[in-house]
TrEMBL record, chain A:
Keyword Lipid metabolism applies: no
SUPFAM superfamilies: beta-lactamase/transpeptidase-like, Penicillin binding protein dimerisation domain, Penicillin-binding protein 2x (pbp-2x), c-terminal domain
Main location: membrane
InterPro entries: Beta-lactam/transpept, Beta-lactam/transpept-like, PASTA_dom, PBP_dimer, PBP_dimer_sf, PCN-bd_Tpept
GO biological process, one term: cell wall organization
Record-level Gene Ontology MF annotations: carboxypeptidase activity; penicillin binding
UniProt-recorded name of the protein: Penicillin-binding transpeptidase domain-containing protein
Species this protein is from: Gaoshiqia sediminis
Subcellular location(s) of the protein: Membrane
Chain segments annotated as transmembrane: 12-32
Domain of life: Bacteria
Upper taxonomic lineage: Bacteria, Pseudomonadati, Bacteroidota, Bacteroidia, Marinilabiliales
Keyword list, A-Z: Carboxypeptidase, Hydrolase, Membrane, Protease, Transmembrane, Transmembrane helix
Domain PASTA: from-to ranges: 647-705
TrEMBL record, chain B:
Protein name: Probable peptidoglycan glycosyltransferase FtsW
Spans traversing the lipid bilayer: 14-33, 54-72, 78-100, 112-136, 148-168, 189-210, 277-303, 315-338, 350-371
Record GO terms (molecular function): lipid-linked peptidoglycan transporter activity; peptidoglycan glycosyltransferase activity
Enzyme Commission number(s): 2.4.99.28
Length: 705, 399
């Protein structure tokens, strides 16, 4: 009995000690709940107010027909937390199999990947980049479906960093004018603000408004609960015509390659509206190839001495003041004239000279001596009158287009420190001043537009889900830059240049053109006018057509050509090609009879629903339910209308021939291909044949017409 | 139905009730705390782990009913040495298996192909059975008790040493419980204090040399880290908030009456909410009253242990009960202490509440044995007020 009492007693002591522990625990709970609760409140608040931005989808930049010039496509960065407990648990056993699956998916070397993976694992890397490139949605899904990701627990370490990337489906086409985005501080995830080009000036429409969401954890899943829904950006419809842009860029490219020039630009503008139909800029990339490296047409680096194209302005001032008429005769001598210690040469000096000729002839032959003599004769001592009138044209002010880095013109004024003896003569034929090619074009366009100077227009309208939100009217800079008489004479001068002057080679038998060649000797960048004894030229041509009823104006500037350097022979061919194309595309009278007879319009291959909607709208007799498939193709033969279904098979390249550009882009990007388009209209050719196995990230080239 | 089931509910009714309440708490709280786990590993079926837990609880009650109805108490005394040998073998096998298979994450479990279990759970039962047997045999004189001390120390050292390799805290829990059991078993306090001193010195030595020990030395590094984290605060915590912080946040958020059943939010942020920190989630959902209830249930459980021991007529069942009651109680105290932050972080689950698998069945065996003893006591009482003299002089002492 002694033993039992002893045991019970001892157990009792332990029991009370246990109760004491229980009391301590309860007291501690009470203390946590009442003493120094700030820390817990803080953490709780952080958990509850943990917010994240919901990225708004950036609007598209579209061409004049709505086809996409720049769009945002979601991309993902795949990362693994290799220190995740579950990854650790299986790493040794399954790293090999995992490497194999990843290597197969991305077509990379398994051993190299495993080496990298193992090293990262040993380093305890919690942010391991699985694949150096960003992957599209499809690849992300495939990655998630890998056996080792699902069953092998590697999935528990997956971190997906989503980001949208700006894609230009037409590649380099007008890319400088379309513009770029600022990447921002965190490699684009938080940046993506429009910076240059149209992306920059239209930022407020394109950007949309980011939303706000609470990050909440529900049963271990992070869920974003939107508080403020994001507003997607609106689409911007530009004035750029894909077809013409493509053609202009190619024409310029051919000339650049031939002349091996430094840089060149070509711009097509619609006379009445000022709409920029095409704007090509080619400069040398670091590797020597030509590409859209800079917006020479309107940027400050393209702002240079215009040369002979400026003679038009000089002559117009003199005519406007009533000093000269086109028939007044001046002596150009042998093409060499000394003025205030400076010698002025004609470009064809050494061929005997032209002697006494009319002002019109001086202009047509582009005689420097002639122009300088005219201007110095009437404006010596009255230099201010001349420059004031030039200012009156609005040429001393930038166009105010809003583009980042827009060039600022420079025309010196008498009395300025830099104004010296022969300045007046130099300025008269386009030296000692700076204008952007686009400014010169704007002036020539005003001549074509009956003296009404309109601002170059890059954006037609803003759309939201295809509906018009805002339309941009043509802005008038100056309703009449000169008198009717002067205007008529100026046009006569420009027509003369192309009829019998330096622009004669640009003539064509179908419609008259008007314009002015320019050949300026320009400075190498920061290296003076000559480099190694070789002169650097700027060849240009500015003009409009048809001369009798101007519809389009064009400027071509090519700087630093090797070999030929005259405006007519370097810039001229580009002008001629572009003019021909524009005429064929827009101005040639069409035979409308043929179109009347076609009862069924040509239907692009497209999604069934879209076609059905259009068919309803137009009240056509097409049964869109006649075939299966997500996509359908409508073929109209003489006797009947056929509807064929096209099914897209997972993993194989879809057939996009006959489809519109944006539908094709959507479909191909969805199956993991990168798309490059050329042309406008319906897809005629695809570089990867339909039915081929899709290789992720492969580029497919589409030809549209 | 009730009556027919009631027939098998033998032994201490209060303990049955305590276990029933704990089971209910377990199912509710496991459901709340496994959301994250369910999403990660069970395809988002949040009831998955609750159902699993309920099944193990039912199985556990089956085991208890079986033991209390079928197995005589004497059997445990008889099987104890054999069971201890199996335990030691299983512990060794687990370590060997860990060394041989690189993919095995821990030496704690033994994979037998058709099932895997933690030999330490078996050790808790077999060591107590064995120690109780030794103690029961050596109550007659001081010399005998001294001999018992040597035996117990020897066997515990082997078992706890093997567990120590993979799981320092469980090893310490078992060893500590055996020490207390020896105290109850009248081993002179002097020996126990000396042993405790030696044990503390060993832990201190490990703590201070942990940085110099090679990596094969098992969990010594974790051990030091945990102590440091407790004393100095966790420095490499995820986003500056540790598991222990989240546990305290849960306790703070729970307040007086708690959020509501299933209303736990903090558990979503915690890695081991269904296990090591389940007590914090209980408080978050049921408030300080929930916390008190759990403490109260375990104290009732321990109290019933004292009652059973007092009613025992023989030493072996008394020591057996004391050991088997003390182990889960201590484990519960440690778990709760960790959750509220009065002890360093250790991976001790809350017995019968935390989500478990085979460990639930081992717990059920302990409870079954305890119930068997109480049932045995009641039977003796019913038959005759006088204790029945069982002629087993070698087995244990009559009280």
């Amino acid at each position: 009995m002694e033993i039992r009492k002893d045991i019970t007693f001892r157990f009792g002591i332990i029991y009370f000690l246990a109760i004491l522990m229980g009391v301590i625990i309860l007291v501690k709970i009470f203390m946590i709940q009442t003493v120094d609760t700030g820390k817990w409140e803080q953490i709780a608040k952080e958990l509850k107010t943990n917010t994240t931005e919901l990225q708004a989808k950036r609007g598209n930049v579209c061409a004049d027909d709505g086809s996409i010039l720049a769009t945002s496509v979601p991309y993902y960065e795949l990362r693994l937390d290799l220190a995740a407990p579950r990854v650790k648990r299986v790493f040794d056993e399954h790293a090999d199999e995992f490497s194999l699956q990843v290597a197969e998916l991305f077509n990379i070397s398994k051993s190299q990947f495993k080496q990298k993976l193992t090293k990262a694992y040993r380093d305890g890397n919690r942010w391991f980049l699985v694949y150096p490139q960003k992957v599209n949605y499809n690849q992300l899904q495939q990655f998630k479906r890998l056996g080792m990701m699902k069953r092998g627990y590697f999935g528990s370490g997956l971190i997906v960093v989503g980001e949208s990337e700006r894609v230009m489906p037409h590649g380099d086409m007008a890319s400088r004018t379309i513009g770029t985005l600022n990447k921002g501080a965190y490699g684009g995830i938080h940046g993506n603000v429009g910076y240059s080009g149209i992306e920059g000036i239209m930022e407020s429409y394109l950007a949309g408004e980011n939303g706000l969401a609470l990050k909440r954890n529900y049963s271990g899943h992070w869920v974003d609960i939107p508080i403020v829904e994001p507003k997607d950006g609106k689409d911007v419809v530009t004035t750029i015509n894909v077809n013409l842009q493509d053609f202009t860029q190619n024409a310029l490219m051919r000339q650049m390659l031939e002349s091996q020039a430094e840089w060149g630009t070509a711009v097509v503008m619609e006379v009445k509206t000022g709409e920029i139909k095409a704007i090509a800029n080619l400069g040398r990339r670091k590797d020597g190839a030509y590409a859209e490296t800079y917006n020479f047409a309107l940027g400050h680096a393209g702002c240079s001495e215009p040369g002979s194209t400026f003679k038009l302005m000089s002559m117009m001032v003199a005519m406007e003041h009533g000093y000269v008429d086109t028939s007044d005769v001046f002596d150009t001598g042998v093409g060499k004239w000394e003025y205030r210690g400076q010698t002025i040469y004609d470009s064809d000096y050494g061929h005997g000279g032209h002697g006494k000729i009319s002002m019109k002839k001086i202009f047509e032959l582009s005689s420097n001596v002639g122009v300088a003599k005219i201007i110095t004769k009437y404006y010596e001592g009255k230099e201010r009158d001349f420059i004031d009138r030039i200012y009156n044209f609005g040429l001393n002010k930038p166009l105010g287009l809003g583009f980042a880095g827009e060039g600022v013109p420079y025309i010196k004024y008498p009395g300025d420190q830099v104004w010296w003896g022969p300045s007046l003569a130099w300025i008269s034929y386009g030296y000692e001043i700076k204008l952007t090619p686009l400014q010169t074009l704007t002036f020539y366009n005003a001549i074509a537009n009956n003296g009404r100077m309109v601002k170059p227009k890059f954006v037609k309208e803003v759309q939201e889900n295809g509906l018009l939100v805002k339309e941009f009217k043509t802005e008038v800079i100056n309703p009449a830059i000169c008198s009717r008489e002067t205007l008529a004479k100026a046009r006569l001068l420009l027509e003369g240049v192309c009829a019998q002057g330096t622009g004669k080679s640009l003539n064509n038998p179908y419609f008259p053109i008007a314009g002015k060649t320019g050949t300026a000797q320009v400075a190498y960048q920061n290296e003076g006018y000559t480099k190694g004894g070789r002169k650097n030229y700027q060849a240009s041509f500015a003009g409009y057509f048809p001369a009798d009823d101007p519809k389009y104006s064009v400027i071509v500037v090519i700087v630093g050509p090797k070999g030929k350097f005259y405006g007519g022979s370097v810039a001229g061919p580009v002008f001629k090609e572009v003019v021909g194309k524009v005429y064929a595309s827009f101005l040639e009278p069409r035979n409308e009879m043929d179109e009347e007879l076609i009862k069924v319009p040509e239907v692009k291959t497209a999604f069934r629903n879209d076609i059905a909607e259009a068919v309803d709208e137009l009240d056509l007799d097409i049964n869109t339910k006649a075939a299966d498939g997500e996509l359908i193709q409508v073929k109209a033969t003489d006797e009947k209308i056929e509807v064929a279904g096209l099914n897209v098979q997972e993993g194989s390249v879809p057939n996009v021939i006959g489809m519109g550009g944006s539908d094709a882009l959507f479909l191909l990007e969805k199956s993991g291909l990168k798309v490059k388009m050329n042309g406008l209209g319906k897809v005629r050719k695809q570089s990867v044949p339909a039915g081929n196995k899709v290789k992720k990230g492969q580029t497919i080239y589409l030809e549209l017409s | 139905m009730n009556i027919s089931l009631g027939k098998y509910i033998k032994g201490d009714r209060v303990i049955w009730m305590v276990l029933l309440f704990l089971s209910m708490a377990s199912i509710l709280i496991v459901y709340s705390a496994t959301g994250r786990l369910a999403y990660r590993e069970a395809g988002g079926q949040t009831a998955h782990y609750m159902i699993r837990q309920a099944i193990f609880i039912l199985l556990g009650f089956g085991v208890m009913a079986f033991l209390v109805n079928v197995i005589p108490v004497k059997f445990y005394s008889w099987i104890a040495p054999l069971l201890l040998m199996i335990t030691i073998f299983a512990l060794l096998a687990a370590i060997v298996q860990y060394k041989l298979t690189p993919s095995k994450p821990t030496p704690r479990s033994l994979d037998l192909g058709f099932l895997s279990f933690q030999p330490a759970e078996l050790a808790k039962i077999s060591l107590v059975m064995f120690v109780a047997k030794i103690l029961a045999r050596h109550q007659k004189s001081k010399d005998e008790l001294k001999k018992a001390f040597v035996w117990i120390m020897g066997s515990s050292a082997v078992v706890c040493g093997l567990i120590f390799y993979g799981d320092i805290s469980t090893s310490a829990l078992i060893f500590g419980s055996i020490m207390v059991l020896m105290y109850i078993g009248r081993i002179p306090l002097r020996y126990l204090l000396l042993t405790m001193l030696a044990g503390l010195m060993l832990l201190a030595a490990i703590y201070f040399t942990a940085d110099y020990l090679p990596s094969w030395a098992g969990r010594v590094h974790t051990f030091k880290e945990r102590i440091d984290d407790f004393v100095y605060g966790d420095d490499d915590a995820d986003e500056g908030t540790t598991q222990a912080d989240y546990a305290k946040l849960a306790i703070y958020e729970g307040g007086f009456l708690g959020k509501k059943p299933g209303g736990s939010e903090v558990s979503n942020y915690m890695e081991a909410a269904y296990n090591d920190f389940i007590y914090a989630i209980i408080i978050e959902e049921y408030g300080i009253w929930g916390g008190f209830s759990v403490v109260f249930l375990f104290m009732v459980f321990l109290y019933r242990g004292v009652v059973i021991v007092r009613r025992s007529t023989r030493t072996y069942p008394a020591f057996l009960t004391a050991g088997l009651v003390l182990l889960p109680t201590f484990q519960a105290i440690i778990n709760m202490s960790v959750s509220v932050g009065v002890a360093p972080v250790t991976g001790q689950p809350l017995p019968w509440i935390s989500m478990g698998g085979t460990s639930m069945l081992f717990s059920a065996v302990s409870f079954g044995v305890i119930l068997s003893v109480s049932h045995h006591n009641q039977k003796n009482k019913e038959v005759t007020e006088q204790p029945v003299m069982v002629n087993l002089p070698d087995e244990d002492q009559e009280l």
